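Researcher: Here's a chain I'd like modeled. Treat it as a single chain, no partners, no ligands.
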Amino acid sequence: MRKSVLKIGYLDCFSGLSGDMILGALLDCGLSLDLLTTELTKLPLTGYRISAQPARRGIITGTQVTVALEENAPEQRNLKGILSLVERSTLSEKAKERSALIFERLAKAEAKVHRHPVDEVHFHEVGAIDAIVDVVGAAIGLELLGIEALFCSPLPSGGGTAETHHGIIPVPAPATLELMASSGAPIRPTPCLDMELVTPTGAAIVTTLASFDSPTLSLQRIGYGVGAREFATIPNVLPLWLGQMAEEERPLLLLETNIDDMNPELYSYVLERLFEQGALDIWFTPIQMKKNRPAVMLSVLASPEVEGQIVETILRETSTLGVRVQRMARHESAREIVQFDSSLGQVMVKVKLIHGVRIALSPEFEDCRRLAQKHDLPLQEVYRIITAEASAQLL
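Model: Modeled as a single isolated chain. Structure tokens:
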């Protein structure tokens, strides 16, 4: 049986975790600052400048990211405003989706802590420009580096108090604790570090995008994101391990249910909610049930880690009373995400590999649509041009 190879990242949070440290680790692993900056300009957000420089903590040297703000930059936004910024951007659909999921998870945590409806939550520190750049930059960086799965170690608790917009609060911050609790993230005590170690931004990113597991991987590169503060007892850096995880097969679940009494207009919304909960693939099959009644079979492919969320969403959002579950496996080819400079402009291209050899590629739809509108060309013609040019250079 041939093995499939998955490119993964592992965050070793032995010290601290914050949004800017995640960005620093991605840059230290080879992400281009120029490319990251270019992608961030697709977000309709101004009033900041991002920079990166080598920095040393203890005996470890890594990359420290700084987001410098202009005067009078707005420091408070609600969830609707942030999601509008993301949706109005020309970022890739994956970056948009990941960014939106992070902020939605954070809003739910803030809402629970402050006992407010989600729509009434106003972000302060986390709604500021630098935090938005950290979140969206992390989503961009993971995609540009081709990281297909992100893993994270247990999170350090920290201790003491921290000063925020709301005044003095205990550490970990209530929103950070809620993010950990709602995701089941493991937390470890740090009796020698009486300070905030995990910021709400950092917690929101990893509890949304990472699995808290220690994978076996073939290590290829290590990067270090450097924190702003210096600790006396431990280097304040965040290591990111990049490597490949080879598997005989990827364990998956097939969740299915038959529905014959629901308004068909609702299926589109159900599909969106299931993808938000981590579904890998979803399809609808017309079927015939008892008494020749026409119906639809909803099928969802997902990893075992999100079984609970998928089942709950199906039961909440559809009229069904039960969900069938089958355990199965899927073989996957390795892939790369390449930023390609075509004659029409930059486009992300997904490249398929077999035994390390590039054999096929596919341009990203959203980038092709953007270029088709920009050059007033048929979308299929843009696909043809980019596919031909990319194939000549990449295959």
